[in-house]
Specification:
Pyrimidine Nucleoside Phosphorylase, Chain A, domain 2, Aldehyde Oxidoreductase, domain 3, single chain, four-stranded mixed sheet, four-stranded antiparallel sheet, binds uracil, 3 domains, Transferase, Pyrimidine Nucleoside Phosphorylase, Chain A, domain 3
């Protein structure tokens, strides 16, 4: 005998279309019925559009998140015997912070299970960056992940397909129905994966500015607040930093060159903004895991974080001493006058790196690890006519023209004293539940 379904999808769509609120049972059924194929894509498209237009209450967003978690496995690191903490960034240009951050936090005895993804479009993926290290392996079994967390304190690896499978199906649908940008859907999508990953504490790096997924600060704040509340509702200690993505982070965009810059930060150097954000996020992650008042920066300066990095890279088959790939061709853009660099827009530089081969257009495409951009000057720096402003690197020189098209008008040299268009402070505010 066919089982009787508890709800009717059309009734639920009508409720949401007319501005009503869905019960927890209705949401749990909807997500489950969609995952098993009973609710059709066209019905779920109508539902996501109704949510996009009418929003969701806090209880609905929580129920949606919990239903997506329940669609798959939930990891459990309680047997590790140490606290766990993780970070999620909404993504940006030159955002390589996970690389120095994970070993830095792990140095303090707090385990970091950093399940990461690959890049799509102009924002790069952590796994793509790390795969430029010869031998490094992104895919680990749950047992390997647990053992590495126990022995080395940190892991960066591919999120398994068992975590929140409902989100994967729903995200693919949103992508082709113009419903990605709904805050309830973004927040539940991100948080279902992070909560299912089993971390005890979570810091969200929510970016605002022209190169961010959420360009307006107010929308970024709302997303951060929603996610922080979801974390609290699920018993995960969660906070968020609102951070600036108006200009590229650091001086490199790409894969191998971002690894190089991360290693500089781990050696106590590197660009000031990358170091500042790494220290701010590590301090926040450690505080949520119960370690207040630790001198995080000291572990970058005295080599402890670097030692952890070398161990975790080796544990995943990588050779931390192996030379990183170098691109076959370079194209240098120089300053046409003396002055001050007053503008360097993140998004066009991210798109240019992608066109050079650093990113992918479809998820099955390969990336070119050596392709990317090095920025020799950052907003506020004095520049002299003829000096290099940035260098494009690619394996195929025919890629330069399209990359140059992307950055045309995206940087500007002004006079000393002109306002610098850098989007303001790097860390704007901290958000808690
Ligand atoms: N990243 C996610 O994982 N989900 C979204 O909905 C948007 C960004």
């Amino acid at each position: 005998m066919a089982s009787v379904e508890a709800f009717d999808a059309v009734d639920l769509i009508r409720t949401k279309r007319d501005g009503g609120e869905l019960s927890g049972d209705a949401i749990a059924w909807l997500v489950d019925a969609y995952t098993r194929g009973y609710v059709a894509d066209e019905q779920m498209s109508a539902m996501t559009m109704a949510i996009f237009l009418n929003g969701m209450s806090r209880a609905e967003i929580r129920d949606l998140t919990m239903a997506m978690i329940a669609s798959g496995e939930r990891m459990d690191f309680s047997g590790l015997g140490k606290p766990t903490t993780d970070k999620h960034s909404t993504g940006g240009v030159g955002d390589k912070i996970t690389l120095p951050l994970m070993p830095l936090v792990a140095t303090f005895g707090v385990a970091v299970p950093q399940l990461s993804g690959r890049g799509l479009g102009h924002t790069g993926g952590t796994l793509d960056k790390l795969e430029s290290i010869p031998g490094w392996r992104a895919t680990l079994s749950n047992e390997e992940m647990f053992a590495q967390l126990r022995d080395e304190g940190g892991v960066i690896c591919a999120a398994g397909s068992g975590l929140a499978p409902a989100d994967r199906k729903l995200y693919a649908l949103r992508d082709i129905t113009g419903t990605v940008e709904a805050i309830p859907l973004i927040a539940s999508s991100i948080m279902s994966k992070k909560i299912a990953e089993g971390t005890g504490a979570l810091v969200l790096d929510v970016k605002f500015g022209s190169g961010a997924f959420m360009r307006e600060t107010e929308r970024a704040r709302e997303l951060a607040q929603t996610m922080v509340e979801l974390g609290a509702d699920a018993g995960v200690a969660t906070s968020a930093l609102l951070t600036n993505m108006h200009v590229p982070l650091g001086r490199t965009i790409g894969n191998a060159n971002e690894v190089r810059e991360s290693v500089e930060v781990l050696a106590g150097g590197g660009p000031a903004d990358v170091r500042e954000l790494t220290v701010a996020l590590a301090t926040e992650m450690l505080a949520l895991a119960g370690q207040d008042d630790v001198d995080v920066a000291a572990a970058l300066d005295d080599g402890r974080a670097m030692d952890t990095w070398r161990r975790v890279i080796r544990a995943q088959g990588g050779d931390p001493d192996a030379p990183l790939p170098e691109a076959r061709e370079q194209h240098v853009v120089t300053a046409d006058r003396d002055g001050v660099l007053v503008e360097q827009q993140a998004l066009p530089f991210g798109v240019a790196a992608w066109r050079l081969g650093a990113g992918r257009a479809r998820k099955e495409d390969p990336v070119q690890h050596a392709a990317g951009i090095e920025l020799h000057a950052k907003p506020g720096d004095a520049v002299r006519a003829g000096e290099p402003l940035f260098t494009l690197s690619a394996d195929e020189p025919e890629r330069f023209a399209r990359a140059l098209e992307s950055v045309e008008g995206a940087w500007r040299i002004g006079d000393p004293g002109d306002p610098v268009d850098d989007g303001g402070p790097l860390v704007l505010e901290r958000i808690t539940a």
